Amino acid sequence: MYYNRLSDDLRRTYGAKVYKLSLSSGCTCPNRDGTLGRRGCIFCDGSGAFAQRGSMEEQLTAARRRVAAKAGEGAKYIAYFQSFTNTYGPVERLERLYREAMAPEDVVALSVATRPDCLPPDMLALLETLSRQKPVWVELGLQTIHSASAAYLRRGYDLEVYDRAVEALGTRGIAVVVHQILGIPGETTDMMAQTAHYIGQSGAWGIKFHLLHVLRGTDLAALWRAGEVPVLTLEAYIQALEACLRHLPREVVIHRLTGDGAKRDLLAPLWSGEKKKVLNAIRAAFVRDDLEQGSAL
Ligand code: SF4
Q1: Does the predicted model carry a pTM greater than 0.90?
Q2: Which residue has its alpha carbon closest to ligand 1 atom 5?
Q3: pLDDT score recorded for residue 54
Q4: Which atom number of ligand 1 is nearest to the Cα of residue 43?
Q5: pLDDT per residue as tens digits for the range 117-128
Q6: CB–CB of 204/268 below 8 Å?
Q7: What is the distance in A from the centroid of ligand 1 to the CA of 48?
Q8: Is residue 293 included in any domain, yes or no?
Q9: d(C-alpha 200, C-alpha 245), whole Å
């Protein structure tokens, strides 16, 4: 059994356990502020579940406190701007925040989650400058390569936009991590594997897998209540995940095998709220099936 786990990759690179410090840039999202739409992606509850408040110094302190029980002496950290579109704002303001966040010596990298249509030239130039100081990762929420699925999710940009962003980031030495959602209604396991294959060939350094899950307050929840959203069983999720991993080059780093949304707002599938159990089931299945990342390439 083999897949290229992020924790192993980080340990090899930094010789220590590395923890993420979830920080807030205060940015909104063009899919929410009316630029592209007001209701956001169909699954997004807009809560910024992991967002912190306060000055960057206060945020860093609070974020360190959240992982303190796990992180021992000598741990390293990644400054992680996770919620919303963290390059969607004035470059000068974001530069200040990013620099402050990545300044502590034990912060070894900066990770910025955003959309590929929110990377203007001055933002790319800033990220390139910062990457000379410490590694910079940019996370892109592609979710799927299939246009009907992207329209269903209300993603709001075309695949070519993603292609151009990955290329622009890659040529500037910035590592790209791509999010993929498994279980979009109408997608077969083969279609999900095609998305993983595309991501793997696109130049991405890493990938994060998520299950399509229904959160209270989203438009997806209304459709689900109307009986229009079939959700995956755990077995079907694992099967899709294995198919995707088999279609990814061995060196692509697997950042996440399943999502970790706010449990209190989870409507379906309820099994996905038991994150520990889900991860145990996934790992047991990988061993049972002798899963080998890249074996289908
Ligand atoms: S998922 Fe991301 S891009 Fe979509 S509406 Fe929410 S914050 Fe915006």
Answers
A1: yes
A2: 40
A3: 87
A4: 1
A5: 999 999 999 999
A6: no
A7: 10
A8: no
A9: 10
